Amino acid sequence: MIVFFSNKFPEIEIIEFTKNHHRKRYAEKKDYLLKLYKKKNVEIFIYNFEFTGDIIKEPFQKVNGNLLKKLSQIIPFAYEKISILYELTDLFYRNFPEKKHFILSDTGFFSTLPEYVSNYALPYEFVKKKIKRYGVSGLLHQWVYEKTNKTSNKKGNKVISVYLSDFPNICTIKNGKAIESSVGFTPVEGLPSIKTVGELDSQIIFFLYVCGFTMNEIHEILTSKSGFSSILGKNCDIDDVVKNKKTRDILRYYILKHIGAYIGILNGIDRIIFSGKKNNLILDFIKYCCEEMNFIEIKIKDKIRQGEDIFYLTDKESDVEVCFIKENRMEMIKYYIEEIKKEE
Amino acid sequence: MRLLVFNCGSSSLTFKILETDGKIYNVFLYGKAHRVGVKGIEESFIEISYKDKCEKIVTSLRNHKESAEIVIDFLIKNSIKPDGIGHRFVHGGDYFKGNTLIDEKNIDTLRKCLPLAPIHNSISLSVIEVCRRKYPDVREFVVFDNFFHKTIPEIHSRYLLPKNLIEKFGFKKYGFHGLSYYYVTKKIYEILNLDIEKDELKVVACHLGTGGSSVCAIKNGKSIDTSMGYSPNSGLMMSTRTGDIDPMLLFYIMYLYRINVEELIDLINKKSGILGISGFSSDLRDVINAILKEKKENAKLAFEMYTYRLKKYVSSYIFLLKGIDVLIFTDDIGVKNPLVREKICENMDWAGIVIDKEKNKNINEKEINFIHKEESKVKIAVIPTDEEIVIAWEGYKLIKEIIK
Fold first, then answer.
1. pLDDT band at residue B404 using 50, 70 and 90 as cut-offs
2. Are B301 and A192 a contacting pair at CB < 8 A?
């Protein structure tokens, strides 16, 4: 059995993979989990960290004491994202020293961002303190990239990956390595999400403060009361965003702006990968985005044959490939399990 | 009519006296205070060109107020009195409907605008106050830098903040350097023999100043997007300003390093940008010199960060415009730094941009230059800006109205 843990603050999500099936459960108490897995025959424990700072430079890394010590130092950077999982990893690593333990990192893929990309233009002392851009959803972006490399006949040296979810974000891949991400130190930077503000002039924060808002109140406004739900006036998801004319246009504006910037730094583009839920709303939205990209020789097929989980929207003659990959978390985790096994 | 025009940059003060009959504008006197408040290697100084002579006053210039006092004392000493004094005012928010004469009532409204652009609005106001004191009987007027961007569509200018906050405080992307963008747009239409009211043209313009810098996407003469936002703080990396930054980072810096809001405001407005990364100067010219000669640590990094971010903005606007006809570089850094232009234009054949490196190195900084190769689909123009003449154009209309 292989056991996969991830953070669903304040709970821990557990997925048990056996030969032919998987089982998902949730727990809050680590001691309970310790007792549970003492009784089971586990081959590998995998811990999916959303943030590992610049400590882990690959999608996954084998756990050892030194790694745990380093990770403990970055907990204040992303407390809600990693504190529970860190405690669990530490507990299991000490209690099951004979087992294999791996950390799957969502930021490891972005360790290849050049310094002039990842730095903020703050005094250099902050750069030394590791205040920089770390990206997000690295596991997904790498997975979709590898998947399209296997299915496409064209070269994929210059690739942009657009993740259409409640937390949309975009990543740029050159020769297999991430060189840009729309996300920064936190996932709030970049594209707006359902509840977070996205791009914002920092002076607005100070203006609100001068007007009497506390920093805690402003924090809450930017992370829970903004984003697309502030326009739609209700709790919503990505389907609602692409259904409404105004929010659809705003999301498209942000996506096009980022794609344009990334094509500029790549000096061209071979492939644009969209990933997310597979439904007609999302697919219509992707076509709506592509309509604005005709001038870079994107030729969308008249009739698109939708495959199960991956299909191409462009003609064979199109200079730039556009494809869609259905988000499938289980398949993605299995992909990384196989990669870990290969490394073993 | 003789109009004195002041144009405060974040680290410079440009001034001109223009004589006009409403059609022709002749420069009677002009000059510039350089490195105002700059902590750098070279000393600050004021140049004044008048009657075919150029006087250079090398002195410490702690702020814009001090610089304006020196300029006005020079004018008074030479018995020069203007009929009107105009000022570029960076951010009028939604407080003003148009450019305006200054009176007792609206000077308080200008004061209300200070938090909108703390660096720029306060220095402009300090110069306005010097003029009121030195020339109490001369009418002053303000020309707003954000008005050119009123055509930006809501989809591009909206922040995704709660509706009630947007309505209460007017949060949106206002954009700046509007006078400069208006001038270079007018010039490019003129030189290409096009009609700004009728002819289609896709332009990306880069206003690269020694203090602040921005990029603007201009479609058929109208701004459709720009890199600066609610304040001149966002967008490109600037001399001492961060430019775009993860908004949540401010909270983390406060929490992790125990600094208060006032210190944070100071940090991201005055200690970041080129100064923050290079560690020795806020002036990109010093940074370039350091790369070429002294090989100072972090000079290369500061330059790479500056040009990388600029290239991203230029590319994203080309994409939004669905192509580009003309790429314009203007203002001090844009006109006087071939290295910056070369860096932005290299490897841009995806957009049809091909720079002629020789032409780029050998431009006449006082004229309009084209620096693209013949095979380039896109024209690359270097245009020295003239924000002061735009202020004078507007000022003439305002002053003439009260003379009537």
1. low
2. no
Q: Please, which residues bridge with residue B3 across strands?
A: B18, B84
Mean pLDDT of B11-36: 93
* Set of chain A residues whose Cβ sits within 8 Å of the Cβ of B155: 246, 249-250, 253
Q: Which residue, chain included where needed, has tokens 């700072």?
A: A53
Nearest-by-Cβ selection for B248 from A122, A186, A260: A186
Per the structure block, which two tokens stand in for B128?
Answer: 């306005």
What DSSP designation does A103 have? E
Task: For A201-245, write each residue's pLDDT tens digit.
Answer: 999 999 999 899 999 999 999 999 999 999 998 889 999 999 999
Question: pLDDT digit string (tens) for A317-332?
Answer: 888 999 999 999 999 9
Three-state SS sequence of chain B: CEEEEEEECCCCEEEEEEEECCCCEEEEEEEEEECCCCCCCCCCEEEEEECCEEEEEECCCCCHHHHHHHHHHHHHHCCCCCCEEEEEECCCCCCCCCCEECCHHHHHHHHHCHHHCHHHHHHHHHHHHHHHHHCCCCEEEEEECCHHHHHCCHHHHCCCCCHHHHHHHCCCCCCCCHHHHHHHHHHHHHHCCCCCCCCCCEEEEEEECCCCEEEEEEECCEEEEECCCCCCCCCCCCCCCCCCCCHHHHHHHHHHHCCCHHHHHHHHHHCCHHHHHHCCCCCHHHHHHHHHHHCCCCHHHHHHHHHHHHHHHHHHHHHHCCCCCEEEEEHHHHHHCHHHHHHHHCCCHHHCCCECHHHHHCCCCCCCEECECCCCCCEEEEECCCHHHHHHHHHHHHHHHHHC
| Chain A contact set for B268 (CB, 8 A) | 122, 202
Give the ipTM. Answer: 0.95
B317 contacts A260? CB cut-off 8 A? yes
Distance from C-alpha of A10 to C-alpha of A24, rounded to nearest angstrom: 16
pTM for this prediction: 0.92
CB contact under 8 A, A206 and B261: yes
Q: Is B258 on the interface with A (CB under 8 A)?
A: no
Give residue-wise pLDDT tens across range A95-109: 999 999 999 999 999
The C-alpha atoms of residue B175 and residue B152 are separated, in whole angstroms, by 9
